[in-house]
Amino acid sequence: MNIIFKNKQLLYINHNLKLDWVYRLYKTYTLSDDDLEEIKVYGGRYINNLIEKDKIKIENTLLDLGIAELVALIELEKLNDRQIGLAFRYKYFDTAKIASILLWSSITILFSAIF
């Protein structure tokens, strides 16, 4: 995780990737009017080509940092009519799930101590 944290500025500058509180890398694509017209003509293939080109560049940067085998694409999601989200996380453990478990455990312990 430290290697991503140390290189978060590089990842943001090169790819507009941001790091959330559970160490997932994410990016939001905002589609222009031209993009929406292309989608009408070519359908989902246009979006796939757009994102695939960018994903390859991101994976090459992760390879250069020596963490390509640790990080994987987890989700590509339509956020609204003009935005698409792309997220990466560690392959071997889910930091969001671990953070959720720790948070709920802490709340349970806190309430147990109070009552």
Note the main attributes of this structure.
4-stranded antiparallel β-sheet, 21% strand
Overall description:
The chain is α+β, with helices and mostly antiparallel strands and about 120 residues long. It has one domain. Helices cover about 55% and strands about 20% of the residues. The chain is extended, with a radius of gyration of 18 Å.
What's the arrangement of secondary structure elements?
Blueprint: H1 2-6, H2 8-15, E1 18-19, E2 25-30, H3 33-42, H4 44-65, E3 71-78, E4 83-90, H5 95-114
Antiparallel strand pairs: 1-2, 2-4, 3-4
Describe the structure concisely:
This protein has 115 residues and is α+β, with helices and mostly antiparallel strands.
Number of helices: 5
Oligomeric form of this entry?
A: single chain
Q: Which structural class matches the secondary elements? A: alpha+beta
Q: What does the largest sheet look like?
A: 4 strands, antiparallel
Average pLDDT for all residues:
82
Helix and strand sequence:
HHEEHHEEH
Global outline = extended
Distance linking N and C termini: 37 Å
**Beta-strand content bin:** 15-25%
Please list the strands of the largest sheet in the order they lie side by side: 1-2-4-3
Q: Determine the fraction of residues in helical runs and give it as a percent range.
A: 55-70%
Q: Uncertain runs with pLDDT below 50, 5 residues or more? A: none
Q: What is the gyration radius calculated from CA atoms?
A: 18 Å
Strand segment count: 4
Count of spatially separate domains: 1
